[in-house]
Amino acid sequence: MMDPMRSLLGRVLLEEITPVVMVLSTPLAEEACRKNGLNFVEMLLPFSVFNKIDVPVRTASDQPYRLQMFKLRLVYASDIRQQDYKVAENHLKQLVSDAANAALSDLQSELPQLETILSETELNFSPSWIQTFNKELRKSVSFSEHEAFDHPVACLFVVSSNDAQPINRFVDLFNTDQLPSLLNDGVMDPKILKQYLLLHENHDGTMDRATGILAEMKSTFGSIDCRLLCINSSDGGDGELKDNPWLNVKAHLSASHEIGSFLNIDDLIEIKEFMQELSSKHIIPYMEQKIRFLNQQVSATRKGFRNQIKNLWWRKGKEDAPETTSGQMYTFSSMESQIRVLGDYAFILRDYELALSNYRLLSTDYKLDKAWKRYAGVQEMMGLAYFMLDQSRKDSETCMETAFNTYLKLVPSAQRNATRCGLWWAEILKARGQYKEAAGIYFRISSEEPPLHAAVMLEQASYSYLFSRPTMLRKYGFHLILAGNRYYVSDQRPHALRTYRNALLVYGGIPWNFILDHVHYNIGRWYAFVGVFDVSVKHMLEILACSHQSATTQDLFLGNFFETVENMGKIFEVNKLQLPVVNMSSIQVIYEDHRTYASFADLNVNENLWKSLEEEMVPLASTIKSNWLESQSRLSLKKYDDSHVCVVGEAIKLDIEFRNPLQIPISVFSLSLICDICEKSKETKIDGGTSSFGFNDIEELKEAPSCRSRIGDVSNLVLSEFDLVLGGGEAKRIQLDATPKIEGVLKVLGVRWKLSELVVGYHYFEPNTKMKHKKGKRVARNSSGGILNFIVIKGLPKLEGCIHNLPGTTFAGDFRLLRMELRNQSEYSVKNMRMAISHPRFLSPGNLEDFNMDFPCYLEKQKFSKSMEAPANAQKFKNLLFYFPNDVTIEGGATFYWPLWFHASFSGKISLYLSVYYEIESCSSDMIYRTLRMHYDLEVLPSLDLSIHIAPCPSKLQEFLMRMDIMNRTSTESFSMQQLSCVGDELGISRLPANETISPLKVLHAGQALSCFFKLKDCSKSFEYETGLAFHGKDEKLDAQGNGKVLIDVSRSPFLEFHQQERYHQGKTAEGGISNIDFILISELHDSSSTGLHPSILSFHACHCSITNEIPLWWLMEGPRVMSHDFSVSFCEIDLELTICNCLNAEVSIRIITNDFMPETKLSDYLISDSNTNQGGWHNVSLANDIKEISNVQGVQSEKLSSSSSQSISPFIWCAASSTSVKMQPSSTAKVPLRICIFSPGTFDLSSYELHWNVQSSSPSDKGRPGDDAMRSSSGMSQGHPFYLTVMQSH
Amino acid sequence: MIVCVAVVGHQNNPLYLQSFTEADDALKLHHIVHCSLDVIEERVNNPKKSGPTLNETFLGLLYPTENYKVYGYLTNSKVKFILVTTDLDVRDADVRNFFRWFHSAYVDAVSNPFHLPGKKITSKTFASRISTLVKSFGSTAPA
């Protein structure tokens, strides 16, 4: 047998299954006790428990054993009945409510850690009132008729010595009408042990009367059963009891009346002795006796084979009896009841073996009788007996299960019994460490009980899960939630709150949003109910951003949140409020220091791009520092290095994205920045104290914005406020402004907004958030982390600007005049203006006069056009830096216009960047200059493709044939050609054939291509003698109709600049060598009404057109064509001249070799040694001998001649050197004189010469461009062109 | 009738939970599924000695609540499938089959290159496959 004290259940059983002593007392006796603030039962209560009674007990067996712990239950006779259901219910409810108050105070405390909970034992962790609740719940089914352990064992009559006729009073007390119904109904044996007690108050007078009465009692009732108890020996007043025994037993009694104040130590000893005697001398022996008696009876009637058969047969006969008669079937005298009493008494006296055997006997009987409730009761006791014996776990469990299930079948009458049985069962399981199973039992109980009880049961189930091994935390949480729910239903919100809070320990941080939301929502709601609004709101905040919930739920949550905040009654500020969500990575800070922007779009341009653009325009930062001549104010900029600079009166813009996580729309009011501004005087020591300054900020960031005292002066800072409505799931970008009004330091700390009148959300920008900062370079070193500090400096003028009528989309070649507008809104004027343009190919600044002209008419070719001087060599082709004239200043409030020429030089998407630099007139500020940055994107569509091919004219050295291929690349537009100009003075252009009108040239439709031919003529000075040819100019009008349009002078200002640019850029990509031949084609959009685009003029530049040829040179033989000579006199000598042009960009060495015989075919090999074939080209037999005579100047030649002498001799011979070498400079012309001797008249082809050329690739510029030379061979040989000379015999 | 199926990730995070009831008992089902994780954990940590538990993915009946039966299935990647049904007499083989189809649907869903591992399954195809599976539960083979 196990030690029952070891387990909780054992202790509980020892306490609860104890003999009941029925107390019957007179009013006077009660009154005597009440002086101490107690009734009689309460007075005896502390002394009814004996921890070491040490009484020998002998029950049925002969073996005596000793009882140690013993307890008596003293109950008034009026209480010996089954409690009224309602009363019991209320009593339990009260118990829970009392505990609720304790729970409430507990709610303020912090939640413990999960680990600490797990290390606790169950007894410590679960609230103590739960055990009390269980006890009271079990009590509510005590004094039932089917069980005997609650039946009074003894009856104690208490009469005061002050009562008149005490003996009669004793007799009266045992009147049947006062006795409990159990006794009267015959369920209980009315013949029970009677004890008579005379209560005497010592201060009432002498003991004489009392002893007299006692003597009388003894004679009447027998001397053993009568006793005298003296109380109230003390005369009241101050409590002299050192350790008041009632204090721990009846702690909940009202302390207003001092307990036991009339009792002194003697009284206590006397009471104690009385109780000891009562239990050891009367009750226990009485029970022993009864057990032995009953056991004998049972053995006689039921034990043994014969009895069993008889019993069985007898029961069979009753089988048809209805089941419901169980109530009246068994009286106290019936055998079954007697066995039950025997079993219970044995149980009370801890003879569990005896009890068990009797219970077993009984259970079969009841089962046969179908007396289910009794059967269940017996099974329950069997289970407990098995447990106390600690023999068979299985048996105790099956017994409990049978009992429980049987009770459950009898619901509702036995429902509470089922609960009690379940509680025992669960305790049995827990005592054996089977927590999980115990939890299941609790759960089963809970489903049968009203919500409040169910809640307590579920809570116990949850604790069981918590302490089961392995811990089942999720079930713990779930059962806590279930319990909380039941608590809530039964109006016990503090308890509900407590359980949910505990559940949060498990659920905190899990990704199961629905569960978490439910828990937070209810905790929030209930906190609000108990009036703890701040915590309530805290929990409500957790669920605000519940994007996963349905719209109605979101609405509900939001509504509840607002309601709670309203109830709180003050403005509630939430850090990082999730409604709306601030996208911290989306933050862009836009501010203007010396860099200002024309429009918002300009900000998205990479800072480096601007920097490179402004590189030359803006004074270097280092020069400010190094030069001691600079004014002090500029030096002061240095100390602001860590901060950003902004200007008084100019807004710092913060671009930030807000997102509504909900499906329902939310409205946000008064969205604004949180800023701090300190006046300059306070911040004079800023350079020394930036770090400490930063630390302060970190501290401050923990406070709500309203706590920040420094936002005092509204006039110092103007913040923009936004109201916006975010639809479900919508995200919006908002630009918030802060405009400082005084000089000093401005700190942008965060944003704030109002969700309602009372809910204010704020979000500080945290140092670790990566800010996408428009002014990137200095952010990272900010001493105060990511907090945005700005030095606010004195007001400065700021230019605003834009470019008018710049098209968004245009065709390549578009040429127009734009107007740049610059406005100065401030009162100061600005000077020293400069402008940098990123694409000088597209934009070129004009002159102020350009506005006065009528474009494009003013470009018409003037009769006396003065030749424009070439732009300065310093002109940059990458970025154009333009200096406005020195006298240009923009007064405060003035608007300034400047012309810009636009030329769409190539197609594609182009971003144009312009930066205008200006200095401030009154230079008293920290900043001496500012820049205005403008940025335009435009799309240039391809329009016309122009390609030009020039070939040398074979007959004339100064003339070239030019083919122009134009292709219209648009799909809808038609262009009309206006004019083709050749740039420069060197070349003239004329149409081929000269006077023919080219009608298709007029309009080039979409997708069409066109080729036309022109003649180019070199009209430079060196060929002046050639001007005899009709030549009109360098511009050719292509519009044959000539409808009044005039030629445009391409050598004037805007064309000139653009052409320079084009030349430069095309030169970079040109394949051939640089050549000076450039063309400009001017066309018009034919039918501009079809689209919205209205380019009036398109100009196309084709630069670096070179004369294409297979060989790098061309030459021309010049000389008389027809001559008459008298051959009879002498042979004829004719002078010829060979003009050779080198069109290569390299030095070429040329050797001219004349041959006196003609090779018939072109030689496959260019080598000289192979050139002499045996076939002569010219078959006119001539004087071979003369060749020998004449051409013996050079040995080489003579050798050659000798070898060829045998062959056919040409009718003429070349005089002078047969081989001439010329070295030619790049792009130069050389003349080589030649002479020929003719011996007879005739027509001769003088093509028998060869040009051997060799490119001298020694110059470094050539090496850099190997591609050019690769196109041509580095050396080669060309045959002479045919040149026919007719010589006639003159007579 | 199947009232709820769920996929729970290896960190016990819900990946997919679909109820097939008319009533608004999503929260309850969430709780039931969440609780059943305890049982799964227990099963996994204390495998029964008997039977070939190695590589056995089907966990069987996890626990009977008052109205529901909860079945579990554990993949080798520690993803749990949970089935909550109101049928009181369910054949084990049916459940096994169901889970097998469920598993293959899941594998297909997570094989989508656009699926983020460890994130909720949002595939509509998966949802429709599961709902047809649920509808055909009890019959021999799913469509």
UniProtKB/TrEMBL annotation, chain A:
Residues 1120-1250 form the TPPC8 C-terminal Ig-like domain. InterPro entries: Ig_TPPC8_1st, Ig_TPPC8_C, TPR-like_helical_dom_sf, TRAPP_III_complex_Trs85. It comes from the Eukaryota. Residues 1255-1281 are annotated as: Disordered. GO terms for cellular component: TRAPPIII protein complex. Residues 1262-1271 have a biased composition (Basic and acidic residues). Residues 607-761 form the TPPC8 first Ig-like domain. PANTHER family: TRAFFICKING PROTEIN PARTICLE COMPLEX SUBUNIT 8, TRANSPORT PROTEIN TRAPP. This is Trafficking protein particle complex subunit 8. The lineage of its organism: Eukaryota, Viridiplantae, Streptophyta, Embryophyta, Tracheophyta.
TrEMBL record, chain B:
Pfam families: Sedlin_N. It comes from the Eukaryota. One of its GO terms (biological process) is endoplasmic reticulum to Golgi vesicle-mediated transport. One of its GO terms (cellular component) is TRAPP complex. Keywords: Endoplasmic reticulum, ER-Golgi transport, Golgi apparatus, Transport. It is found in: Endoplasmic reticulum; Golgi apparatus, cis-Golgi network; Golgi apparatus. Belongs to the TRAPP small subunits family. Sedlin subfamily. This is Trafficking protein particle complex subunit.
